[in-house]
Amino acid sequence: MLKKLDTISDKQLNKIMDIWLDTNIKTHDYINKSYWESKRLFVRDNLPKADIYVYEVDNEIKGFIGIQNNYIAGLFVNRDIQNAGIGSTLLKKVKKINQSLILSVYKKNTQAISFYRKQGFTIIDELVDSETNEIEYTMRWLSEEQIDPNKKYPIKNYDKTIFLKPIIKSKNIQIGDFTYYDDIDGPENFEKQVTHHYDWIDDKLIIGKFCQIGKGIEFIMNGANHDMRGVSTYPFPLITCGPEKAFQEFKDIPSKGDTIIGNDVWFGQNVTVMPGIKIGDGVIIAANSTVVSDIPSYSVYGGNPARLIKKRFSDEQISFLIKLQWWNWDYHKIFNNYKAISTGDWSQLANIEKWT
Q1: pLDDT tens digit string along 262-271?
Q2: For this structure, is 226 an active site residue?
Q3: Please, what is the end-to-end C-alpha distance for the chain in angstroms?
Q4: Which among 28, 196, 226, 332 is annotated as catalytic?
Q5: Contact 75/82 with Cβ under 8 angstroms?
Q6: Given Cys at both, which of 64, 152, 171, 309 links 54, Cβ 3.0 to 4.6 Å?
């Protein structure tokens, strides 16, 4: 039976500490037994500060988990009853209460690492324990709700930012997971920002994953093109014959092709993108810009017409990121490692592949 200990008796605390000491000694044979014995009193004094859940069999504690805020202070199961699902049951309980969890585990404790991986935890950092000189991994778990690309509104209690993929209706607009549009006047109307997009032309707007699109964006599609080979650019057949017949007459007008946007592209407010533009990964486009030519990955563009302001990183770093393609990782892996991605911790980014 699983229950929370609102108050802990000396008998219960002694039993918990017996499990703690015995498990640590037997699973950490690379650390001297005396180390755990020396830490027992410290842990005993501090463990009651955490929320403690225990699993009992015949009224005897066989396992426990301690959690402070979202940090797992310990998860231990009596050695004579392991592999009975007690650890999973205790962890499942705290997962119901928390949207994210963090814990520390020694690198050499491969059995524990394997267990936590199966429970959805990901290694996000490593450090050296100053007391034992052993490498310790930090692992994080996030709930499915937090990393759901199919929910409509990603920000709790805020309806001005929307994930686009779940709401797009046009077969000629393709949006990657987690790409959002922010518009205080109603982000649900994003498709109205894709102009001159006619079914009979069949050009496509393709936007990658994790893009951030500001209010006032306009993607102008090939339906805006006029024939410039004659004396006048006026679309006489469109007026006199209707769009489908006019398209047949004008079908040899050079098309600029699909508009293709990479991954992790940030569009400032009121950006206009002309037909057939190709924008690479990791690009930043300044507010009020008009994009009239292709943009290479990891560069900053701005102005009318938009021009190169600077490269975001060195050529070597850009080459590394293009190869890394973090947006194609498993989504748990991405969100569990968001700090390394967001802060540009190059050494940690390189280590992520090693940890997985």
Answers
A1: 999 999 999 9
A2: yes
A3: 34
A4: 226
A5: no
A6: 64
